[in-house]
Amino acid sequence: MKSVLHTSESRGKADHGWLKSRHTFSFAEYFNPERVQFGVLRVLNDDIVAPGMGFGTHPHNNMEIISIPLEGDLEHKDSMGNTTVIKYGDVQVMSAGTGVLHSEYNKNSDREVKFLQIWVFPHTRNVTPRYDQITLNPAERKNKLQQILSPDRDDAGVWIHQNAWFHLADFDKGTREEYHLKAEGNGLYIFNLKGTVAVNGQKLNTRDGFGIWETDSAAITAETDASFLLMEVPMTKEIK
User: Fold this and answer.
1) Which of 129, 188, 213, 217, CA to CA, is 20 to 30 A from 166?
2) What's the CATH class of domain 2-234?
């Protein structure tokens, strides 16, 4: 097994007043040649948007973009004609494909929005742009892994153009689960949202990230009450 640890404090920082962001991987003005991506996982941003503020209309192409709200309400508008609001319990996906314009704003005037913005390289370029969002029941991740994303449109969660699976979990202290990777050649990146977990013996504190590959499983134990996100992704970028 090979591994890489990214502690919370080692992440890149951005403070634009209206936006505070921590970057696990190189993004915008933050660049670290050793932190460009993990396999096809290209961006993992931990964002806080001030009340009433947001990202103006901007373009994307050939990227699978996933948003996971943690607090507050985020309004999305795009050139495909979608106007939606996502909140805690929702998962949003946008396949940018041949190109799309979108904006994201904090819907609330009295509280911040906190969300994870995740970019994954697709396995196929120039697909027709697509938008989707779903509402999940957070109770279904209590002491178990709740699948929120897969490559299969008929499976649980949203789907993307990549051989990837994401799970969220809320574990009570002492809960243990063994995750078995679903595809040969994939790796697993664990982003610990809160509390303390051990992954194959490596302790992760709040907002630490840990990637493992050349293994077929991961043993996860909650050392305190904890919440975390698992992202299984291909370790090589093969694009059609």
Assistant:
1) 129
2) mainly beta
